[in-house]
Amino acid sequence: MKFQILPSFSSLKKRFPRIILGLVLTIVFAMQAGSFLSLPLLDRLDGMIYDSKVRLNAIPGIDPRVVIVDIDEKSLQEREKGGEGRWPWPRDRLALLVNRLFDDYDVVSTGFDVVFSERDESSGIRTIDQLAKNQLKDNAKFQSQYASIQSALNYDAQFAQSFKDRSVILGFSFLNPGDSTQKGDLPLSEITTKEIPITLVRSLRRDGFTANLSILQSNAADGGHINPIVDADGVIRKIPMLVQHGGNYYESLGLAVARNLLGSMPIKPVLEKGADLNVLGGLEFLDVGGSMLPVDQELASYIPYRGPYKSFEYISASDVLNKSVPKEKLEGKIVLIGTTAPGLLDLRTTPVGKVYPGVEIHANLISGILDGTIKQAPLWTQALNLALIVLLGLGLALVLPFLSPLMGTVVATLVIGTISLLNWYSFGQGYVLPAAALLSSLLLIYLMNIAYGYFVESRGKRLITGLFGQYVPPELVDEMAQDPTSFSMEGESRELTILFSDVRGFTTISESLDAKTLSEFINAFLTPFTRVIYNNRGTIDKYMGDCIMAFWGAPIKDADHARHGLISAFEMLTAMERLNEEFIKKGWPPIKVGIGLNSGKVSVGNMGSEIRLAYTVMGDAVNLASRLEGITKEYGAAIIIGEETRKQLPDLIAREVDKVRVKGKDVAVTIYEPFGFEGQVSEQNLSALPLFENALRSYREQRWDEAESQFTDLLTNHRDTGEVLYTLYLERISHLRQDPPGANWDGAFTFTKK
User: Fold this and answer.
1) Within 10 Å of residue 584's Cβ, how many Cβ atoms?
2) H or E stretch at 263
3) Taking a C-beta distance cutoff of 8 angstroms, is the pair 351, 302 a contact?
4) Is the pTM of this model over 0.70?
5) Helix 704-717 × helix 683-700 angle, to 10°
6) I need a surface site. Which of 187, 211, 528, 557 has the fewest CB within 10 A?
7) Are the C-beta atoms of 606 and 576 separated by less than 8 Å?
8) Most confident segment among 55-69, 392-406, 594-608
9) Interatomic CA distance for residues 358 and 347, integer angstroms
């Protein structure tokens, strides 16, 4: 058995366009993965894949440690309906809210997802101050009461007083790039660009901000920004842990709350092993009181969403003010104060919901920091993504063109499925691996191969099938379709082997059967004979009643055409024996087949008229094959082959039966009866073969007595090896004795009929 490790040139030529297209796709996606090319669609697809993983990994239930005190629609109702009225509320009420939380409910920390950048003048204090400075500045009685009145009406001071010695974290907001407006006071920063140089990261840098009143921020335990990162598709997946402003870094609200709970330990940068402070991308974690917080080059972290909206307990702010909440719901909890009221515009789009309260984003971050569940995407994940695109993309680009559609689908499915499972597993282990470019490249390479095979190559196959489908088996059609440009039906000269087979005495058989039975009878033996020819790479030229004409070596070239033709002849005889057993059971007459086989140069191609054409062969070699089939009965042989066929089969055991001149030809040709290939011939035939050769030599040398004696001996002792043949020569000897052929006789016999 031959194994072809490397594809043939014609196979490579046919698949070259698909290989090139696959390589181009691999290069394009590799450039995207290496940041040499921007494909926004892939970034969006990566976001969608990430969102799906977040949703599928949702944690059931709520986190009991964090509670959101919600400035909801209920809280914004009028006082007589149990609410506090429209926002903003007087800050004496907010001071009462903070006091309720710490004094009545014993919460451990409170963070505000609200910015208090404007002075609260709802008490009328501004009017009192103006009177004290202007119209009533000389009124001693008023001035004596002014100090106590001012204290009672200074709601900001009361609000700030409620922060004293309590873990209250205020939120503030950085403005968009280019806006340098600054309002309010930022909290103190404990980390600067000295600890985290700008050469190490590409942190977000902002000049403008809207922060809290100085009196409020100075009394709060800390503060944190409330600015998430909004991706191009409008979804919030990350939040910068630190934002740079004026040479300092300011932490997010969630980080500030979590760090305060962990003892307000300073933030420490943690570099990759061997990383340099002056090399971009070396920062891997922020050490927050021993808790490692993974960050990217922008000092941002993935928000560890636990699940959809209300993955945390929500309590109406008005219920807290009215003390209508059971104490156990808030005792010992971390509280975030924010809003879900649509009118206050703090609803965002996230992986777990299109309408999601901003305050719950910070709650998720706090929960993730405390649990250590924030996903990381270190730089090596990008390098791994690029390497996989190159290796797997090249692999599929080079392999898929050589596979069948079914096998290609299996291979592509296994590769894409394995990558998807590994990506999913990595997510569960805390790593966010990019998937869009890799999966898209593999999927597009597969789809390109399928589409190219269907629209381009299958067109060639359909053309080949239309041209040759009625002549050659499907297996050869598939083989021809691999390189359809190499085949045509135009006439050409080629060396082939031609076979003719005919059922002996068919006229007598046909007269004994009715029309329907005759049709079934013919189909019964033509079908298995045709299968034999097809199985040996043969081409059916035509059926002529009970006769089959076939050839080997066209349209597909076949160096072993003579061998395949003779093997088919042997197998047809074997099939005939099985058929005769079935025919006898059905009451049909058994059949005997004569087969003529010859090789030589012939014309092959589409021949006929403008009305009808047929793919056929013509030439002397074809005519001789037909005549050889016609004389098989004369020699009592099932198969007779021509001299050219015999020359191409050196391992064939055959006996030369005669030299003949067929009608229309003056040159005699040697004909043979094949017994089988070496190792396949019976001892009986092998023992008779040299005896026949000696007798034939005596015959041709006109030693009639010696020849007659030898053929008589063969007929007597080896009758089963050629009774008709031996008898034929004895009859010829008797005739030639009476009418000697002369000295120039070559021993050839002339057939005057086909």
Assistant:
1) 11
2) none
3) no
4) no
5) 160
6) 557
7) no
8) 55-69
9) 6
